[in-house]
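Researcher: Please translate sequence to structure tokens.
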Amino acid sequence: MGKIIDKIKAGETLISDGAWGTFLQEKGLQPGECPELWNITRPDDVFDIAKGYIEAGSDMIETNSFGGSKFKLANYGLENQVYGLNKAAAEISRKAAGPEKFVLGSIGPTGKILMTGETTEEALYNAFKEQAIALEAGGADAIIIETMTDLEEAIQAIKAARAHTGCEIFCTMTFDKTVNSDFRSMMGVSPTDMVDRIVEAGAELIGANCGNGIRDMVSIVKEIRLSNTEIPVLIHANAGMPVYRDGKTVFPESPGEMAGVAGELIAAGANIIGGCCGTTPAHISKIAEVVKK
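Model: Translation complete:
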């Protein structure tokens, strides 16, 4: 099957998956319940989500392990189950992906803030190391460190995954549009700030996820490309910005609307396109249709 990076270098544009949390909730995940625990208690439901994206045309799928660090699992009293829950997450996605598609082991932020002294770089490194080792053991081809807002935390995750696995290492940050129409993470990091630091730390592919609809992601990709024309770029956009309607939060962009911008995203320099909050297999299917043309 080779590597994801090799396919990109050969000129392919690849399709990733879409939202996970939305579908776990649709299947009955309750507020305050640990999503990663479902890898053991309800694996068929997790498999169903992964399989849905493969059938929609994804070349790769993530794992249900976004909050699988020791720090996040401690909120549920599950901090001693890091290895088992992450390995199970990767095994489920591996089964859905089969031998032809790729599995991205998802690692999200810990929720701890370095600059306030809530944790240390060493503690973060060790937590990410533990998670990455388990994801590789379950069959992940790549580790995707995502939704990061703090560069220093992202760097610890990249270094830990690179030193302790043989996986490809990807990293995406989350940027919000400011009143000046530029983009910054919650910790004040711009796409330009991100590029050199996370590539230097060992990320083989970079990009952005969440925080924006697909149109704003075009501007983020353009900014990344001004700093680095070579590094592969992945974008997981939301299906528009959330609106509150009839008592619930919805993401308003249709599959057609998202797919309509995919060409611009590729022209700007994106190599992998998928979705984040609000995106469904229908969105992925439509994007795949456009990209494969």
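Researcher: Any highlights?
Model: The CA atoms of residues 255 and 282 lie 6 Å apart.
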